[in-house]
Every structure is written in C-alpha cells, then in structure tokens.
Amino acid sequence: MTAEWKREVDRLYALDREDGFAQTHALGVINETIGEEAVIVCAAGSLPGDLHRLWRAGGTNTYHMEYGFSCMGYEVSGAFGVALAEPKRDVYAVVGDGSYLMLHSELVTSLQEGRKFTILLFDNHGFQCIHNLQRANGSDGFGNEFRYLEEQTGRYTGEALTIDFAAHARSLGAASYKAGNAEELREALLAAKTETRTTLIEISVLAGTNTDGYESWWNVGVPEISVSNKVNAAHQEMRNKLAQARVY
Ligand SMILES: Cc1ncc(C[n+]2csc(CCOP(=O)(O)OP(=O)(O)O)c2C)c(N)n1
Ligand SMILES: [Mg+2]
Questions:
Q1: Ligand 1 centroid to residue 123 C-alpha, Å
Q2: Ligand 1, atom 12: closest residue by C-alpha
C-alpha cells in the first residue's frame, strides 16, 4: 500500500502537461528544493488537499496547515507568525491567488519587522476548488473563475483576468519572481533563498491540475428540487453517499 502510494506521488510530482505547468508538478519541485527543515504554511483552496496527499515532510514541525476552518487569508499572516517564532528557519506560505487577494497585508508587516518569509502564489485564475465542487454537484459553475463579464452571456465567460502578482508584491516592497515551468520554479526558489526580505514567487499553474478523486467527497448541501436534472441527480447521488457514510 505504501509503495503504491509512493508511486502515485512520484507520478503526480512528475506530471508533464504540454499545455502548461501542472500544480502537482510544482509541488514536487518545491518539495525537492526548499530543504528538509523549511516550514510550509497553508490553509485553503485546492492546495491543502494536495499537500495532505502529496507532501513529503522532512524535519519535525515543518508542516503547518490550518485544517480547523481552512480559513482563506491565513497563509500569509500565518507564515509571518511562523517566521517570527522560528527566525532561523526558511518559511513558505503556500497560497492560491484567491486567498492571496483576500488577505496579504502581513507581507507589509514582515517588511516592517525585517522578518523574511517566502510566498509561493499559485495563480490558476480563480477559486478553482469551489469551481470544481460546483460542477461536481450538478451546477455548470458560476462566479468562481477570474474572467471578465461578457455582454452576450451576461456571465463571467470572457478572457481570464491577467493579474501581475509579482508586480503587486514589488509595489509593497517585497522581492518577487515569476515561474511558469519546473526549471523557472527551481531557479526562483534558489534565488528567493538568497533574498533577505520577504519574497513572492508567482507560479502560473493550469486550473484543474490539483489532485482529485480517490473516493473522497464533500458533504455539501445540494438542492433537493431543481429545474436542472443534473442538480436533481447530484442530490440523489449525495443521498446515496450519505447512506453509505460511517457514523462516528
Ligand atoms: C474566509 C473564507 N472564505 C471562503 C472560504 C471557502 N473557500 C474555500 S477555498 C476557496 C477558494 C480558494 O481559491 P484559491 O485560493 O485561488 O485556491 P484554488 O482553489 O484556486 O487552488 C473558497 C472560496 C474559505 N475557506 N475561507
Ligand atoms: Mg486559485
């Protein structure tokens, strides 16, 4: 079983996509590059599930996950807190673009305090785990992608917003880098290690390249009655899963 899972992690860490950078590949590069004593801090989005399944922790107290409420915005402020508590360690906030947009201001406090940490920002143009969750429960998806509103559809179906997160971090006084493939990410991680002030690496990843499946599911409220047959079917499916769930 363990050997089987190890093979699966190896596969996902090496996942090569012709159309862009896979999120699980980026996590593999990070795992192999930051060092065994480095601390990662994460909280919300598709990243906690991926890290829970894939992260190979080296030293003790190196995996800091906000599992309680999975509160978006914890990542940057939490990493700053770890940097204050563990001044000799390299500390990394692993954060989605959505969470970063919600709260990133402790980046400025870290510059003020002179306590460096590194922000690994995964840009996949939106709240992609919720987008996945909606579509897995009968919806066509709404409002979770960072796309422009289109007049013809009246929906957010336009081009993806291009947000320059590296420039944003620089404007606050941080150092920053961009990476769109494994080589660039490796180089940026090594360069970030030599920086003395808080640094952000903007990592462009393909939406939908997070881990998925393995019989796991979320108990979310799916409407009991809908004009959409897909929603009605999803409701029935949720009932079936709940009937099989173990009570504890
Ligand atoms: C404060 C807060 N609001 C809402 C949520 C529900 N929620 C969980 S993940 C998520 C989207 C996260 O988007 P992003 O950080 O870009 O991560 P991705 O899923 O794209 O990897 C939302 C809205 C939450 N966990 N915390
Ligand atoms: Mg995102």
A1: 13
A2: 45
- Which residues lie near ion ligand 2 (Cβ < 5 Å)? 96-98, 124, 128
Token pair listed for 196: 């003395």
Rounded to an integer, what distance in angstroms lies between the CA atom of residue 95 and that of residue 129?
13
d(CA 172, CA 168): 7
Phi, psi of 150 (to 5 degrees): -110, 135
Measured from the Cβ of residue 91, the count of other Cβ atoms closer than 10 Å reads 28
Q: Which amino acid is at 182?
A: A
Taking the C-alpha atoms of residue 204 and residue 97, their distance in angstroms, rounded to an integer, is 10
Q: Which tens digit of pLDDT belongs to each residue from 58-105? A: 999 999 999 899 999 999 999 999 999 999 999 999 999 999 999 999
For the chain, what's the residue count? 248
How are strands ordered across the β-sheet holding 39-42? 63-65, 39-42, 91-96, 118-123, 199-204, 175-179
Which residue type, as a one-letter code, is found at position 205? V
Confidence of residue 187 (pLDDT cuts 50, 70, 90): very high
